[in-house]
Write a structure and sequence with these properties.
152 residues; two-stranded antiparallel sheet; 6 helices; 7% strand
Amino acid sequence: MLKNEILNIYDKCRLHFYMQVFSRFENREATLTTVESFSMECIMALDHPTIAEFANMMNISSPNAAYRVNSLVQKGYVKKVRSKEDARIYFLEPTKKYLSYYRINASYVDTVVERCKERFSEEEFNQFTEYLHIVNNELMPELDLSRFKRER
């Protein structure tokens, strides 16, 4: 039962995102490919990674990662920002163009959170939030993103 509920929630979030993205294709001059979308989701999750950190997380070679990043730079979805501490290092930063694309999903999550607040008592809502925090921070150690990032 829990497995099905988690899968259904995951599917609904993805489907909502895809529905919104497809409905906006006509207005986009350069849309993201599927692999580029996955790449941008990883860049967002890593929060300003280097190309090496991105490559490490995706388990791809540095040249392959650089190729993917350069494609995203050309399309205007990511920019390279030089480190102030070490000029040899560049961090990947999503652009406003990508952030507007990303907000499609974030706004739906906001809607669902508001519906949860309406549906559950404050105590139930807080308990639900705590359970999700435990799942996110304790029960999914394989996806601890800090292990992909070097000390900064």
